[in-house]
């Protein structure tokens, strides 16, 4: 193509490369969902339909982008983790974030009517913001995931107690707020149990733990793999034969993408699923 006098504008494009050899987490978050949830009458503190819609959209994103190794969602947010050796979108932050945000939003809108058959969407339509953060080590990545899950627990225990006081106890929001000021987890558990007969442990797992999305392979015996160390020792992507790459691709496509509500803070979750950190697909379980 011939050069034009306008072409110099290309020099204005700034690089926004993400650090190589790091775990990239793209976190998206619903914009103005406090208002949005009121408009569509989301149940408080947790709306099953809304959370399942978030999960369905996240699942669709993972199916389209095999480089995502795991995703974790709670409330109106979802974190998508790209493996440290992944070179998708030349590791450009804006490309990665915009792809995730637009794919997620498209599916959220597309799947809305399945989850809310009675309430059609109308403008202002749901939208999401997103950011990408690089984490250098497995410990950093796992601490990030733990941070989100602890946040989920703290918020959910608070919200469950807060809304029990209002919905079942008939108190006003300010009263409920005052009753919870300075309380610890044990106090909230006690309020729930002694005043409303609610055992927090029996609350739905999705509300207590959030949702984890990943490809499902056969679980391994804990202690048989040390993928965390292996992953940390990896300095660059391991060169692979074409056949191997093709095989991995097939196995990944065969794997079911599951949504579970598990503890991702403890080692066990990671120990039993070495493919999450190694990026090598595991054994596809036999059809039951
Ligand atoms: N009722 C209800 N509301 C929810 C549920 N999940 C998320 N939300 C709402 O979504 C909000 C998410 O918090 P934020 O992301 O901090 O608030 P936001 O209004 O989206 O603000 P920005 O993200 O800054 O645009 C919560 O405060 C709730 O109001 C749900 O299951 N039920
Ligand atoms: Mg939000």
From TrEMBL:
EC number: 2.7.7.79
Claim: Metal-binding is one of the keywords in the record: yes
Amino-acid positions noted as binding Mg(2+) 1 in the UniProt annotation, renumbered to this chain: 29-30, 76
GO biological process terms, semicolon-separated: tRNA modification
Pfam families assigned: Thg1 (PF04446), Thg1C (PF14413)
Family: Belongs to the tRNA(His) guanylyltransferase family.
Name of protein: tRNA(His) guanylyltransferase
Lineage summary: Eukaryota, Fungi, Dikarya, Ascomycota, Pezizomycotina
């Amino acid at each position: 193509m011939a050069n034009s006098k306008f072409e110099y504008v290309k020099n204005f494009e700034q690089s926004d490369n993400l650090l190589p050899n790091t775990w990239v987490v793209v976190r998206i978050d619903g914009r103005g969902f406090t208002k949005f949830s009121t408009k569509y009458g989301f149940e408080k503190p947790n709306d099953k339909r809304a959370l399942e819609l978030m999960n369905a959209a996240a699942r669709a994103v993972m199916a389209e982008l095999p480089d995502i190794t795991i995703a974790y969602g709670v409330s109106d947010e979802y974190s998508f983790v790209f493996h440290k050796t992944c070179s998708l979108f030349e590791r450009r932050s804006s490309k990665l974030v915009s792809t995730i945000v637009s794919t997620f939003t498209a599916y959220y809108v597309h799947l809305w009517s399945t989850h809310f058959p009675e309430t059609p969407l109308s403008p202002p339509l749901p939208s999401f913001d997103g950011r990408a953060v690089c984490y250098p080590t497995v410990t950093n990545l796992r601490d990030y995931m733990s941070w989100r899950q602890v946040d989920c627990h703290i918020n959910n225990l608070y919200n469950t107690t807060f809304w029990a006081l209002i919905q079942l106890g008939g108190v006003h929001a300010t009263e409920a707020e005052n009753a919870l000021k300075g309380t610890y987890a044990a106090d909230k558990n006690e309020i729930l149990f002694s005043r409303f007969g609610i055992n927090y442990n029996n609350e739905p797992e999705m509300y207590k733990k959030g949702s984890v999305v990943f490809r499902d392979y056969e679980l391994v015996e804990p202690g048989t793999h040390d993928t965390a160390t292996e992953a940390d020792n990896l300095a660059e992507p391991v060169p692979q034969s074409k056949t191997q790459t093709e095989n991995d691709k097939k196995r990944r496509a065969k794997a079911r993408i599951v949504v579970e509500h598990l503890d991702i803070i403890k080692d066990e979750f990671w120990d039993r699923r070495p493919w999450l950190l190694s990026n090598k697909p595991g054994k596809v379980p036999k059809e039951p």
